[in-house]
Write a structure and sequence with these properties.
mainly alpha; Growth Hormone, Chain: A; transmembrane helix; Sodium:solute symporter; membrane
Length: 523
């Protein structure tokens, strides 16, 4: 309905126009004629003002372990093909209040160019890190230990080296996260730790090629893992803190692509360096160096933290990744599922070089080049099947919307993948293991991430729960390499490692069933 203003009565006198306010055209000195300082001041003037300005009550930036997005970034590393689609609730997100989702946690608004640099920087950093670590873990270090100690001694030595490295990395992360929170420098609080960790890891990665004893390899590897832990925890924190909410998913996808490409290229780097592992290790050290340079120079510079207030460091800052207040039974079972699933995956993957090389027995090892090529083909098959698993998982979600079903199917397929080499310890059996295992492990990881996010009992403590969830995966990998060492010390054939991988996946299935039953009872 159109609104019409009432017409004036012709008998009434015409209403005069309102009188203007007195001195309405008066310009107030210093107020109405005040210039726009952003346009009037030069960059040097702005820097001088910022340097001389007095900041009252400086803001205390949040700790990395208290930010769900930081823990989600760390959680995504375990699934380089793609993480869970379940969004991580963050009560500090700009989408939940009136803040601008185009700014980062510090209130800075990155430009389009800076956002593009973040995408390229995080993707390239992830690529070179994954390339170096995949080549060292899967091919080069096992080959070196095999040459130094023989089949059985090399496998036991690999378990010792990987176990010590995981333990040192885990302890270092517990300390480095809160220490970086309390760092105050003109270059930010994460950048110095990333730079220091990169330098340490590069130095000892170059030293790997000079080691001629398993003990020396273990010591150098452990110190290198400490440096990598410093770089990784700083990188995860930077992704959660410096990328605005609006672009975090896009930057995360770019990083995922970099991880997958680096994983594949790293495995094939081992093939190319099969007859010269020392040179391959040096190339991996160069890859770590390039990752550090890209992370520091391509990603926009972190804002200064000189004026940021720091709260006193407490013991709780060190224990945040190890415990949560009042965990439910469902949450405990999910963490145990994650622990046993990680142990089973490491048992099946970490020792694959020895399993392939000594397919016909400890006295009949395959040629090094043939071993490398088969391991690389198994890696490609596993990655391809993991990508297929991503589509199948989305299809199951769209039809049933049940992460529990995805988890149980993944656990069953993981057990099947581990049993196949036990029944048929042949080339075909190992390829079946790689394909079915890559498909199944990704399903398990995807479902566990979604279930972990949805089962957190206290949303305001989401970050702490996810930190413990990530720690359970690390402890599972430590359990897996320790079990692998005992298996190779007392087993007669290398295929025995798949038996214990199947046992670990079965225990994960039992814990998953208990978690599902508990959640239904609570619901």
């Amino acid at each position: 309905m159109n609104y019409q203003s009432p017409q004036q009565n012709p008998n009434e006198p015409e209403r005069p126009a309102p009188r203007p306010f007195p001195n309405s055209d008066y310009v107030r000195p210093g107020i109405d004629d005040r210039p726009d300082l952003d346009k009037a001041l030069t960059d040097e003037d702005k820097a001088a003002v910022a340097r001389l300005a007095v900041r009252q009550k400086p803001k205390t930036p949040p700790a990395a372990a208290d930010q769900p997005e930081v823990q989600a970034a760390a959680m995504g590393v375990t699934a380089p093909v793609g993480g869970a689609d379940e969004p991580v609730p963050d009560l500090e997100s700009a989408f939940l209040d009136m803040r601008d989702p185009m700014v980062d946690a510090n209130g800075d608004r990155p430009t389009k160019t800076q956002i593009l640099r973040m995408k390229i920087g995080f993707a390239c950093t992830a690529f070179f890190l994954a390339l170096a670590l995949a080549a060292l873990n899967i091919t080069l270090v096992p080959q070196e230990l095999d040459a130094l100690s023989g089949p059985v001694g090399g496998a036991i030595g690999l378990a010792w080296v990987l176990g010590v490295g995981i333990l040192c990395s885990f302890i270092a992360t517990i300390f480095f996260l809160p220490l970086s929170d309390h760092t105050r420098t003109p270059f930010g609080r994460r950048a110095p730790w990333f730079a220091g960790g990169t330098i340490l890891s590069v130095i000892f990665a170059f030293a790997l090629s000079a080691c001629h004893a398993p003990v020396a390899v273990g010591i150098v590897w452990a110190i290198m893992q400490i440096g990598i832990a410093a770089a990784l925890c700083s990188l995860h924190a930077s992704l959660g803190e410096r990328v605005p909410d609006k672009f975090r998913d896009a930057v995360g996808r770019w990083r995922t692509v970099g991880l997958l490409a680096g994983l594949v290229c790293g495995i094939w780097l081992g093939v190319l360096m099969a007859h010269n592992p020392a040179e391959g290790m040096d190339l991996c050290a160069i890859g770590l160096l390039i990752a550090g340079i890209v992370g520091l120079l391509v990603i926009p510079r972190e804002s200064s933290t000189v004026y940021s207030r720091a709260s006193p460091m407490t013991n709780d800052d060190l224990l945040v990744t190890l415990r949560v207040p009042h965990p439910t039974r469902t949450w405990r079972m999910i963490c145990l599922t994650r622990l046993f699933a990680s142990a089973g995956a490491v048992l099946a993957i970490a020792f694959v070089w020895f399993v392939v090389r000594y397919l016909h027995g400890a006295g009949e090892g395959l040629d090094v080049r043939a071993t490398m090529i088969m391991v690389a083909l198994m890696g490609l098959l596993a990655c391809a099947m993991a990508l297929l698993s991503e589509g199948v998982t989305d299809l199951i979600h769209s039809s049933t919307d049940s992460d529990q079903l995805v988890l149980m199917v993944g656990v069953v397929l993981s057990i099947v993948a581990a049993v196949v080499p036990l029944v048929s310890y042949t080339t075909a059996g190992l390829y079946v293991f790689a394909g079915v295992g890559g498909f199944a492990v990704h399903m398990v990881d995807d479902a566990l991430q979604a279930l972990a996010v949805s089962s957190v009992p206290q949303l305001d403590r989401m970050a702490g729960y996810l930190a413990v969830f990530n720690s359970s995966a690390t402890l599972g990998r430590l359990l897996g390499v320790a079990a692998g060492g005992f298996v190779f010390a007392y087993a007669t054939t290398f295929s025995s490692v798949f038996l214990w991988a199947a046992v670990a996946f079965a225990l994960a299935g039992v814990c998953a069933a208990v978690a599902i039953a508990s959640s239904r009872k609570q619901g």
